[in-house]
Amino acid sequence: MSRLSPDQREEVRDRFLAFLKRRGLRQTQARLVVLDAIYDAKGHIDADTLYFQLKQQKHSISRATVYNTLSLLLDSDLVVRHQFGNSQAKYEPSFRFWQHDHLICLDCHHIMEFCDPRIQKIQEMVADIYTFEIKRHALNLYGHCQRVDCTNRSAAA
Amino acid sequence: MSRLSPDQREEVRDRFLAFLKRRGLRQTQARLVVLDAIYDAKGHIDADTLYFQLKQQKHSISRATVYNTLSLLLDSDLVVRHQFGNSQAKYEPSFRFWQHDHLICLDCHHIMEFCDPRIQKIQEMVADIYTFEIKRHALNLYGHCQRVDCTNRSAAA
DNA sequence: CTAACTGCAAATTCTTTGCATACTC
DNA sequence: GAGTATGCAAAGAATTTGCAGTTAG
Lengths: 157, 157
Fold this sequence. Notes:
Two copies of one chain form a homodimer.
Chain A: H1 6-23, H2 29-40, E1 45-46, H3 47-56, H4 63-75, E2 79-82, E3 90-93, E4 101-105, E5 111-114, H5 118-129, E6 132-145
Parallel strand pairs in A: 4-6
Antiparallel strand pairs in A: 1-3, 2-3, 4-5
The first copy, chain A, binds a DNA duplex through helix 4.
């Protein structure tokens, strides 16, 4: 996933500030720092890793604030949350990325991304049949990757 | 999801017993009771609900045993686990059900099921492109249902 | 100024683990 | 009878909450 340009990053920031204003919430350092950290991360970061990453930098932000800000970022659609089978949620930037899906290795938990336009079609058809207004989807494919450095590979046939 | 016939139920039971024997594990009352409870449930039951359901019946089985048995049922492919966005995992019978996917209401958390053969195609193509051996998939569509008794419906446009 | 935000630690929720007792093989 | 499975309660992991102090508007 390619990094955003400075212009795009600024737009993300503006959107978040606008969202906060619209909700009557304050623009705080902490909130912007969390936003930047997620957009700087390679992708698929969990709340605690984010917390430790910020702790190591000059910004020290409590877990409570990290979670609080994540919640705001989800509400503003600038970040999406994923639950890849385990209990720990992962977050990634959503802005300006085309909607993509995930391929998860059951052995090494490596995550790959792919994109297939047919899912859009399925989504539209299902929405129609079930009279359901679909906001988003998550397609996760679980299996075994063939990477040479895949760990925990089981002997199971 | 239609209920299984007595014959099918017996086959499920036999499969589980065979699985236990193969692993050198014991056939205990508790394990069979948990298996039955999941297959009797309407579907999409979580561990704690299962625990309380069993508690109310004559069978009193501890949470530890519920979780232990769920793990064995997952290993034996008789039950599948789902993570629908929240932290609480849900379980459902897998045997003799065609693979299906889920439509989840963001307001009332009602879950509907659907099935689309195109997902199979996508799965095969992605497996090919990424040299990945796919074992299973989960496609979740999140949105707003139109049921009259849908609760928590937000005013958001 | 003042209400909202933050940090801290304690509380909650879901799941796993350790250990004495009970039961399968 | 030997040793695994169970129940209980306590531990653990992820996330949330309450409250006193801090800060944006």
